[in-house]
Protein 1
Amino acid sequence: MIDYPTGYIPRQNTVFVCDSSEKAVSHLRELQDLATTNKASIVLTSCAECSEIAGEAVVVCIVKRLLETVKSRNKIKWFRFIARIKHWRMNKEFSRLLNSLEEHPTVAHLEATIASGHRVIREQISWLVLKERAEFVLFVVDNFERVDEAEQPVLAGMLHRLVKGSPAYFRIVSVGAPYLFRKDDFGEVGIQLNHDYIMI
């Protein structure tokens, strides 16, 4: 576990583990307070919002919520006509990407969509950074413990793919230690400590 100075948001993929939901809430408040001074744009979603969904579709639900938040914050005001035209193509492609996740809520489709749509996702993240005068986006996934243990490494791996090559990082907030990596007959799934993320 790395101890960072007070008031600093590391520009790395991170996992924050605590022993109570009160500490998790306190951590989220602190992140929101630190966003401006750290020039970070915080995009937050809670796994609890998708907890009614069973199986691998929960992974799609959480990633889709993060992307929908980016889309909603990237909306251009109606009077900025030239900017709207400039970003029309990018928004259309991004909407198509989100719609495909709605139609096919499987991890295989999500993985293919992130791979094929990575340029569009990166453009949306970069636009959010520019629009909000930030230097990076921090995707915060709260209540990670609410995701079934079998799906936790899958979700962690998707978050890693989502931010790769973009001015973005993720932070997983969990009450209790999350299950972030597994190795089985089909290969490796998830993220590895000190390679893909750090504990804070």
Protein 2
Amino acid sequence: MTDKAPVVRIEAAPTARRAQARNEARRAEAKAERTAYAHRIAEALKRSGAVVIDCRDDAQRQEARAAGRLAGRIRGVSVRTTVVEGRVAVFEPDRSANPLQVRLDERRANRALDEAFRKAGPLTGPWPDETR
């Protein structure tokens, strides 16, 4: 018998192709989840300039730091990530260098204070015109 069996590559086998397709689908789903996570972080960075993310273990911390860096790339700004007491802090170190961003942050802070004063009243006692 000189006839040899045909050589079939493993990656061409139907079960290997299905396994590879499932693996690629899992990777695509994980990438989509990471991107969505990074977009949420980017929105929070846009509002406040810093985000603190609670993490349970080192794997979550690594994932949060990677998502924070991706959020910076999405926004087109430089970000720093650091671990503080088991939580991951993502912040924009150059945010105060932009005078327009400083004005926007001040306005947001003043608006939040005005809203708090409207709801709770003054913190030091009655208004001056209400003394009598």
Protein 3
Amino acid sequence: MAWDPFEALRRDLERISRALRPGRLPATLSVRGRTFVAFYTSVKEATGLPGTYIAEIRVVEVGEGFVGGVSLAVTPQKETARVEWASVTPRGIGLGRAIVEAVERDLKARGYYLVELLAVPDSIPFWKALGYIPQAEDVPGEALEMAKMLYMRALPGEMRVLGFIHSPPA
């Protein structure tokens, strides 16, 4: 069998991921028999927002190349993250779900408890299916603020302050 440089890269990235700690990026994801790798490409302080950092995550398909990414605004002092944008292709095979879950595992492993985002109208069902809760009334055709707690950090009385008073529509 011929040597496959992409297979060697995948194995190296898996070893690096395990060495960093379980649940952290880089992560190798298998989706419908295809192999994808998600990894941080940069982290830099946000201009005009002291203590907030922009983290860029790239997603590549092994042997094929770049297929998408995620941009996060993370605030370590508040232990919160905000998804600025997320996009992957192809759609409809479970890759988006796999990437979001990998990013959530990484954030949780780093101590972040809350992820927020502004969902564009056509992505709202996707984010709801992943457990994100609308933080306002869902108005058809309009973007919607959503959030998800990765683990319970706040006391029950603080839940109202965080905006987790809306239950998802049936």
